[in-house]
Every structure is written in C-alpha cells, then in structure tokens.
Amino acid sequence: MLLRSLSGMFSHDLAIDLGTANTLVYMKGKGIVLNEPSVVAMKNGNGNGKKVLAVGTEAKSMLGKTPENVTAIRPMMDGVIADFEVAEAMLGYFIRKAHARRRLVRPRTIIGVPSGITQVEKRAVLESAAQAGAREVHFIEEPMAAAIGAGLPIAEPKGSMIVDIGGGTTEVAVLSLGGIVDSISLRVAGDKMDDAILEYIKKKYRLLIGLSTAETIKVTIGDAYPGESLEKVEVKGRDLATGIPKVLTIDSGEVREAISEQLNAISGAVLTILERTPPELAADILDKGIMLAGGGALLKNIDLFLRSVVKLPVNIAEDPLTAVAVGAGKALDDLNILKGLGKN
C-alpha cells in the first residue's frame, strides 16, 4: 500500500499518441518528451522465449536487416494493437524512458485512439497500458485531440473540420460545442502509401525495395499535386530478373501516380463528411476551411490536392506531427476538457 502511494506521488502524468508509425509522449508541465518509431526488435532466446533487443529508433534501423534469430516488429496496425505482448513491452519502455527509466513511476495516462476503434481494440490498449505501468488510463479520440492540438475552437458553437492523416489511419471529423458531430476513421494513410510505392516500383521496374526505402521516397520527393517541376531520386533495390542489386531513378510524378488510390480514398472520405454535415456547420467550414494534421499532412502539396477536390480553403497545422499528442496533453493539463468530452 505504501509503495503504491509513493509511486503515485512521484509520477508525472502522460499523454500518449500511440501511432502505427510513431509514438509521441507528452509529459504534464514539460510538453513532448519522446517521439520515436513504433517498432520493437525481439530476439528469440534459447528456450527462454523472446527478449526485447531494442525499441524505437534503434529498432526501426533494424527493419529488413535482422538475422534469423531477431525480428523487428511493428505492434500497431491500422491505428490499433496487432501484437499485444510486443505493444506492452514498447509502451513500458517508452513510459520508463519518459521518466528517465525510474521503475516506481505509475503515471496517469491519456491515450489517443482512432474514432472507429472497437471495444475489443480499446480493451487491448487499456490492458497494454496498465501492464506497462500506467496507474490510470483515459482515452481521447484522435480527431478531437488533433483539433485541440491544432488550435481549433472546438468548444464554440461553430463547425470545425479536422483531417488527421497518420501512419495507419486517416481521421476525418467535424466538431462543434466540444464534441464530434460526425466522423470517419479510414484505415488508409501513410503506411498504405508506402506499400503502394513499393508495389508500383516492383510492377513497373521489376525492382524489389524495402518499406523503409519506400517511406524515404515518399518523404523525399513524394507529392500529392503537381508542382513547378519534377523532383527525382535514386532508388536502390534487388532486380527481380537477375537477383542482383540495381539502381534506378524515379520522379515525383511516378510517386504521385503510385499513391493516387490512397489520396483519392482520403479525399472521398472528406467529401462524404462534408455531404453529411448540417448546413449551419457547413457554412462555418466554408469560412474557416479544413485543418490538416498528422504526419501525412507533411506530404508535399497535399493541401493543394484537397483544395482542388473539395473547393474549400485547406490549412496545415503549425506542427502537424505533434498535434494529437499536444491535444491529448492539453486535455491532461485540464481534465475538465476530458469531462466535457465524456471520455473515460
């Protein structure tokens, strides 16, 4: 009993954006204290089960490069936990790292979850966080957290629209009076774009590349809408015809063609929500436009692409990558926000 009270006394509450691609941790009073890939490297023991070898940035550097007895795993898929044991190990590591590896810490925690999460998926997050050391776990839907983090006036009787493009999910929502009026959680986002780039190069050039290379191509020259000139990058992979390494050059127009299906799915979700939005709120969105957040908002010209489709102003959050974590952190700093949202 004494140990429990001491651990609560010395804990620092956390807000966690548990993303498919990256996990961000916000500490009350300090802001973002951790931003690392959601990857765990596991080593197969000699009859002793699996052992965590590395987590985060170090583990991501091992993706596609591990020997037989080591596996680099991404425990999150489409915004939810796909591997409970590995997710628990990852969360525990990040919580301890955020608290300078102090083991007695049991923080109160708020975790951002997709708006379309099921009760079973939510329970998996809850149990993983509790096993990882969280003393108390609250949830906040990611579009709400992203809107708060992006500075939208969600508490006012006016319509605000957020499009949060992460690694596993794209969250599209209209908010008003501190609540979500309507939303779509689309399991199409950055990871699916990486997959599409990999498959495009494999099919067109018979060149096999890794997902890390596909992500690098997307970040380096990827764009969602034609710019003034085509950008080019060298791509290294294995020639499927000869089996030996090969280098080729691709341009931004090819990347745009590769990810067109994902971009159209996202714009389609935005149009669907706009069609379902009450007229009074739609008028507010017409005036203020749509706010983009999440890592996907960093894709070059994605604001121009959406603007060309929906014919409305499109803005990008000041720091789109941290919007969910910062928004959840603000709810953590002021629990009245959570009470107003009715979250638990």
> Could you say which overall geometry the principal axes of the C-alpha atoms support?
flat
CATH fold-level topology of the largest domain: Nucleotidyltransferase, domain 5
Low-pLDDT residue intervals, each spanning 5 or more residues: 1-10
Structural class: alpha+beta
CATH-scheme architecture of the largest domain: 2-Layer Sandwich
Q: Helix count, per DSSP? A: 13
Termini separation comes to: 25 Å
Computed Rg: 21 Å
Can you describe this structure?
- It is a single chain.
- The strands form 5 sheets. Strands 3-2-1-9-10 form a 5-stranded mixed sheet, sandwiched between helices. Strands 13-12-11-17-18 form a 5-stranded mixed sheet, sandwiched between helices. It has a 3-stranded antiparallel sheet with strand order 5-4-6.
- It has 344 residues and is α+β, with helices and mostly antiparallel strands.
- It has 3 domains: 125 residues, 2-Layer Sandwich (Nucleotidyltransferase, domain 5), CATH 3.30.420; 97 residues, ATPase, nucleotide binding domain (Nucleotidyltransferase, domain 5), CATH 3.30.420.40; 68 residues, ATPase, substrate binding domain, subdomain 4 (Actin, Chain A, domain 4, Alpha-Beta Complex), CATH 3.90.640.10.
- The protein is built from 13 helices and 18 strands.
- The longest helix is centred in the C-terminal third of the chain and has 17 residues.
